[in-house]
Write a structure and sequence with these properties.
The complex is a heterodimer of chains A (289) and B (300). Chain A is mainly alpha-helical and 289 residues long. In chain A, 72% of the residues lie in helices and 5% in strands. In chain A, the strands form two sheets. Chain A has a two-stranded antiparallel sheet with strand order 1-4. Chain A has a two-stranded antiparallel sheet with strand order 2-3. The chains are: A mainly alpha (289), B alpha/beta (300).
Amino acid sequence: MRNLISANFNRLFKSRLFWILAAATLIYSAWATYDGAKKLVADAEHYFSAVSERFCFDHGPVVLMILPVFISLYLGTEFSDGTMRNKITVGNRRGKIYLADFLAAAGGSLVICAAWHIGAMSALPVLGVWKIGIAGWLLSVIKSMLFCAAFSAVLCLVSHIVTNKAAVAIIEIMLALAMILAGSLLYNLLMEPETVSSGVEIIADDDGNTVMKPLSPHPNADYIAEPGRTACKRVLNALPSGQAILLANIADSDDEQLDMQAYSFCASACIIAACTALGAAAFGRKDLK
Amino acid sequence: MEYVLTANSLYKDYGKFRALAGLSIKVPKGAIYGLVGKNGAGKTTLIRIICGLQNPTLGDYTLYGVEHRSSKISKARRRMGAVVETPSVYLDMSASENLKQQYRVLGLPSFDGIDEILKLVGLEGTGRKKAKNFSLGMRQRLGIAIALCGSPDFLVLDEPVNGLDPQGIVEIRELILKLNREKNITVLISSHILDELSKLATHYGFIDGGKTVKEISAEELEAACRKCMRIEVTDTPALARVLDKMNAEYKILSETEADVYAKINITALTNALSAENCELISAAEKDESLESYYISLIGK
């Protein structure tokens, strides 16, 4: 097992694609975060409400789009070049091969995730340290690392079931898009207020002047009531993409706390365990060419 | 006789398609075992099963006496190397990096021996050139080099000369012979090029429709592939009478053709045929090859 992990990480650190993606993440994160923070500071109206975390965790969904590119090409090479055969022929058990592959894929994903956070520190000189404090920031970083690892587990599973490199790249990118879309939809639904005011009515006051009077609020048809609300919150906090979206909106104060930190941690751990067990079992039975 | 590999009634189904239908072979230690069969006969499926890439639907096989369902099969597999279909190499790595990667997979403590393997397969001068820039022959040799990491004593090669130029074919043949003779490596090799296989193999396994048709040693094959003379005459019954008188073994093929399995004097034969009012039209020596033996065996 140690041999396989060593071989995988050696190949990972020699992979040009991996370093290009990590560097691209770092540069994009640094530029986008700094640019966003600078624009906000320039806009004096919002300046006093600006905090670093508003930008630091903004790019989680972008990282989730980079991971399928990295994992599909990194793991896909084993099947397209046929080198997976070299591991199996010499007697390595498939379960161990799968686990070593997941560890390398997750390791690479964490480096990319770290590149995101390092780049995001470019907001600090403009907006100062995070209002959530170092501990809060660290907790958020750990959360992001966990959802990246969880998403890597999902991608690793797909990469070992669909062994065509081109097909797996397309499937994994589409999967990431679908997950981000699902996460966004859920988040937007949950952010719907319970009641809405449909506008104002213009009336004449006692002096005969026209005044605008807000209409009394009425129930919002898009609001998800219980028990569906709790279920949606759980799904949002379990999905890696949902966690990324919640993290991106960490600075948005909301009366209702959507974020379920401990639950998210457990959900990521469960996704990793379930996908790894399922993937190892499926890969163990798969006929390879 | 000690066998490196024995397969007993192997079956492999892909959905409704049966690729192997009770295939059995025995590969003796130290042999170069040639697996002969047409496309779809089940050669590659057998090799994939032996290499652990696929599981048989039914039946079993043993490697060095270890049954394939046993937990000890992993240890037995350590003693084998394989090139299945295309060479399994990282295209963005050099020859030496590819071997180092396989050394890591095997958990070998040092990279000693890599230069020796590269020299053995004739890739010692490739330096930092990446495998994607190698010719097909070089990739094939690199695939064999990777299979040789960890000093295996059983090498499985699936169509190793497919797509190679004549020079490449000769180089691979010499390499296989060298490995077998100098390092005493048992080789299981499948090939379509029967003439090429006949220059290597010490044992043959003929398979068709997923079954073993015949297993035979090179000596037995040589004895079976007798030399004969193909004779064309105007009247084969007259030829039969003459050959009977000469006590020669023969086989009538048509009204005008026959194969004679004996060394006969052409002048004496011509005179005897003349006395029977039969003309000798042509006579040619015919050497039955592995190819003709295969065709006669498979019957297609």
